[in-house]
Amino acid sequence: MTIKPCRSKWKGTMTDRERFNNQMHYRSVDRCFNMEFGYWDQNFTLWPLFTENHVTNNEEADLFFNFDKIKILVGDTWLRPWFEEKIVKETGDTIVMMNSDGLLAEIPKDRHGTIPHYVKASIVTPDDWKRCKEERLNRANPARRVDMELLKKEYPSDRDFPLGVYCGSMIGKIRDMLTFEGLAYATYDYPVMVEDMVETACVLIEDFLDQVLGKIDFDYASGWEDICFKSGPIVSADFFKKVVMPRYKRISRKLHSAGIDIWYTDCDGDVRPIMPYFLEGGINCLFPFEVNGCAHPRELLNQYGKDLRIMGGVNKIELAKGPEAIKAYLETLIPLVERGGYIPFCDHRCPPNVKPEDYLYYLDLKEKMFGMA
């Protein structure tokens, strides 16, 4: 089914690609780049706005709201094959299933959105890691090869939208396999194992980048590194500096040699203790920048100046409070949008406790404030 937009695209005199690149490089723009990160799965069954218009996922929602277009090229940079997802056990209200990372996870039987309770990690000891590495992280696996001719046709150099290259995860996916607690313990109990996991992640990303950099004209790089919570990173700042940051530097050198100087990572929670090492490693943009887990985006933008960019940072808690709170919060972002290097949108997936009518008010107000073409 073709998705019919519910609103007009913001007016502008630049292409989406020109606008994104100018805004991220603190150059003048016709208006703010207009995007959102997405919505909880429940929104697609609870919001009449979606159900009545047959909008079922985030990709369709982007079309429905007529946001500016932005894409990411993702390679095969982690497990291959993934673990088979299957139900292992059922209880009264829950099921225990093996997920694609090989963890046993207890989730509600109705599968409503919630953080799973992890019963058992896929990797606990160095022997577990050795076996997994041999079986699922083979660099020579033919499935890791990309079809360059197909990609060149899909992403021509004269396209009108920004395209990113995905640089994976140096430690976040390792957290997924070890669990939150497992990673915290393993950095002390098995530091050699954890560093080998980080090195393996880095090498697989380098292999992917070596295939595509210089052959496709990218505008930015992206990554995913969910290793922080409201009290800071799971691993120590010292471990991050000594083990993770050097791998970022290797990736950054490849990106810079291909002319890519914007690299964001998706890391929730309080990133401030490791922010200097993100920057030194080459990551110079944060996404989607959770306010309640960290700070108002102006704090870090003021602290690091034009060395840093932020995408996100619209407090979802304020979105749920209604029009008055939404307006008050967006007004605090005006100076940030005007200075450049900042694209405002909800600071993670928009939750279903935000009323659809308030969300539309938010989109309308955002256009009034920042759609200055």
Question: On the 0-100 scale, what is the average pLDDT?
Answer: 95
Under CATH at level 1, the class of the largest domain stands as Alpha Beta
Strand order of the largest sheet: 1-6-7-10-11-12-13
Q: Output the helix-strand order.
A: HHHHEEEEEHHEHHHEEEHEHEHEHHHEH
Question: What is the subunit arrangement here?
Answer: single chain
Number of domains: 2
Fraction in beta strands:
5-15%
Distance between the termini: 32 Å
How many helices? The count is: 16
* Helical residues, percent: 40-55%
Largest sheet: 7 strands, parallel
Class derived from helix and strand content? alpha/beta
What name does the CATH topology of the largest domain carry? Answer: TIM Barrel
Q: Can you count the beta strands?
A: 13
Second rung of CATH, namely the architecture of the largest domain: Alpha-Beta Barrel
- Uncertain stretches of 5 or more adjacent residues: none
Q: What global shape is seen?
A: globular
Rg for CA atoms:
21 Å
